[in-house]
């Protein structure tokens, strides 16, 4: 996701990012910017320089709003982050054919529940994985 406005115009949102002591995996909608959806361009957002690079999200939804198509648990909502191959994934990931999918539970390694991401999710998000 690219940030619009704010201090990080045009920069990529950094997911996850640390805000108020919690990891954020999607754009945040809180009272900081009157409920307007925003993200940090850095790992940590404190609101104080130099940790104040933020921008507004150009989409009105979050990752978890995407419903899956096909797969063994479809239609259902993607669950983020989810564990796959012992790693956290914060968005849809490509299979061996390049088609993007997500887990519909928090731990694919245990549950094996999944579905392909809808076209909107494929167009907007790129994979970002973190070690457990």
TrEMBL record:
SMART domains: FN2 (SM00059). It is found in: Secreted. Keywords: Disulfide bond, Repeat, Secreted. InterPro entries: FN_type2_dom, FN_type2_sf, Kringle-like, SP_Capacitation_Regulator. The keyword Transport does not apply. Residues 8-59, 73-119 form the Fibronectin type-II domain. Disulfide bonds join 13-39. SUPFAM superfamilies: Kringle-like. One of its GO terms (cellular component) is extracellular region. The keyword Thylakoid does not apply. Belongs to the seminal plasma protein family. This is Fibronectin type-II domain-containing protein.
